[in-house]
Sequence to fold (523 residues):
Amino acid sequence: MSPLRGGPSLELDDLLELTFDAVFVRRLGDQVITYWNAGCEELYGWPADEAVGRRVDELLQTRYPDPPEVIEQQVTTRGRWEGNLTQHARDGRELVVASRCVRRRSARGEHEAVVEVHRDVTRRVKTEERLKEANESLKLLLSGVRDYAVFMLDPAGNVMTWNEGAQQINGYAPEEIIGKHFSVFFEAPDVHSGKPEWELLVADREDRFEEEGWRVRKDGSKFWANVVITALRDPEGRLAGFGKVTRDVTERKRFEERRAEEQQRKAEQLRRQAQHMAELEKVKRDFLNLASHELRGPLSVLRGYMSMIEDGTLSVERFPDFVPLLSAKLRQIELVVTQMLDTARLESGRLTLRHETFDLRQTVARIVETFRPLAAEEHTLDLVGPEAPLLVTADRERIETAVSNLIDNAIKYSPDGGAVTCLVAATASRVFVSVRDQGLGIDAEDLPRLFTPFGRIVTADNAHISGTGLGLYLSREILRQQGGDILVASTPGRGSTFTVTLPLQASQAAPAQARADRGQADL
Ligand code: ADP
Fold:
């Protein structure tokens, strides 16, 4: 135990030595130490015999929060002073102590003394200082953050602070928004449904609320916000307000939306492709079905005649009329096969046209004769044409195919018979081959569909008539490639007129002679 010199009283010595606090006594005015307890020794590293007799401010290199004279004055007049002092231990360590000074007359009554009780608060003070600094830096940091709106709300949801980012994102200057309720950031229907209050309720109950949603800027424009609200509590756990961090993630949202749209578009495209494939499959199946029906009719006729020839019941000498009929049936088969081949060529871009100059009148006359045996007894088949040859330059075989298809259709689609009339005519620049029947006719609304691939118009009246739906489509395509076309006029129940038109020289320069030789006729 340190020797007691000039201590307050003998009875207190032991007690003072026992306390953990540093307690010393100094003289008022000159600050000379008269008593120094074990706590002082421990705190400052100075033993009592070295400390006693020295000025405390010198020994401990004290730094005062106020001028020392002012403090001394206070001790003198008020009898006490309290405050933090910065001092140094013997080994040079800086200490912050909480000091309480009380004025006392010394035990022996020789002088006015000051009892000082010091407690080491270095760690606490340093921690507080660091915290304060950190707080300041954080504040500075938050105020300058531009990408995030970081601000505080009071427990009722009114804006209390506002940072640079908040101004940037929401558009309000601090003075415009502080004190206002944060529901101004919401769309009207959200406000109406109580969303802002609900968010605070959740944040209060669960300490945190997070969501993404549309929010409104000062200028009324919308942005997609990522919002985090955190409940802030005082040390007793009472709600002190909310911290709110908002980020404008509109760009990301738009990107995601675009990606979703893109994916949806692709999915839709795939669906349509799959649907298209399925339709194509069906078209293929239907076509095979139709084509085989179309071929089977004339083939079975041919087969029948063939058997009769084989068993000797039929001979050309005895029944010469059956030869043209066989020829017509063969022509029908050829027609279907040619249409199939040409459609395949057309679709794959491999269709090449061969131009030659020929007499259209004669060509049509020959086709009419080929088909004549097919016209049932109830049909009449007539050709009306110019006297003189009508020379045209075009792909002869394909013009023949187109006209054959029209005559074949005219007979097919007038099952109750009637007149089928073929008219060949020309103007100064074009030729026309018109095939008119008195058959089933076609509804006006169905006309555009006739010229599409497989464009069959199936009605109760014609369901029993077989066909592939390729003829008109193919004919129009081929004619158009040569500067021509197919026109149609039809009245349901009264009949149809299909007309092939063609320039005299089908999209190629024809020899001058051909033009001069050409026959003319009026329509
Ligand atoms: P196909 O006769 O092989 O079915 P086309 O392309 O020649 O194919 O004709 C397409 C459709 O047009 C026919 O299925 C039929 O419905 C209709 N059509 C063609 N010609 C006539 C016509 N002269 N009278 C009534 N309908 C016709």
About this structure: The first helix runs from residue 10 to 18. Residues 17 and 413 are 131 Å apart (CA to CA).
